[in-house]
Specification:
Layout: E1 9-13, H1 22-35, E2 40-45, H2 51-61, E3 68-71, H3 82-85, E4 91-96, H4 102-108, E5 113-118, H5 122-141, E6 146-154, H6 159-166, E7 173-179, H7 182-189, H8 194-197, H9 202-217
Parallel strand pairs: 1-4, 1-5, 2-3, 2-4, 5-6, 6-7
Length: 226
């Protein structure tokens, strides 16, 4: 996609490790975009798991506002594929599978921002390094691609330790931290994001801050919500 002020912001939520919370991050970003009045396309690129599609089905059954949903694979970066579907959108969120394969490469070659969720323990950090390498590889052919790590499902006492451990990975760690909170799971089960499910809760505040930070990382104007 051509980078310009009117093009949609395309965010790929990526990484190798299962259980890092990619779908939690991606679905909440998409839901917050809808809440702020954007036309949002949510791409389910985890064709096996299909979490985004299940979430969207629950939202539709409940009559809730939700993103437009589609499933795409390793061809999404090709001309006329994702670019065509996203043409009238303000935000595109790609929920990637926990595999560093051709689908995830295609997502990164389509994206303006790549977000890698990561926990606080050694195994999380080791796994995220592979995702960082793939983002750096994609940047060689997509120079404007911005990448960052977001601490997710982290307990507060471990945040400083996790930041120190991730400091040398090659990508910045976002200021926003998504802590371990039951509200995230409850909201997704209900077909919502936390910012509508529990709008005054701590989880909602975290997602609003993450949404703003992602737009700033992409050097896009932050869309303010109510």
């Amino acid at each position: 996609m051509t980078r310009n002020a009117r093009a949609p912001l395309v965010v790929a939520v990526a990484g190798r490790k299962g259980g890092a919370g990619k779908s939690t991050v991606g679905l909440n970003l998409a839901a917050e975009g809808v809440r702020r009045g954007l036309s949002v396309l949510l791409v389910d690129a985890d064709l096996q798991q299909g979490t985004a599609r299940v979430w969207g089905t629950v939202a539709a059954e409940r009559g809730l506002p939700s993103p437009t949903l589609t499933a795409m694979g390793a061809m999404m970066h090709r001309p006329g594929q994702l670019e065509r579907l996203a043409a009238t959108c303000g935000l595109v969120v790609i929920d990637c599978a926990p595999r560093l394969d051709d689908v995830q490469r295609s997502a990164l070659l389509s994206a303006d921002v790549a977000i890698l969720p990561c926990g606080a323990f050694g195994a999380d950090v080791w796994a995220v390094s592979d995702g960082v390498a793939m983002v750096l590889e994609a940047q060689a052919t997509r120079p404007h691609l911005r990448g960052a790590i977001v601490l997710n499902r982290v307990r507060r006492p471990l945040v400083a330790q996790a930041r120190a451990t991730l400091a040398g990975t090659g990508l910045p760690v976002l200021n926003t931290v998504l802590h371990q909170r039951a509200a995230y799971e409850r909201a997704l089960t209900a077909g919502e994001g936390v910012t509508t499910f529990e709008p005054r809760g701590d989880a909602a505040g975290e997602v609003r801050a993450l949404f703003d930070e992602v737009f700033k990382l992409a050097e896009r104007k932050v869309i303010r919500g109510s």
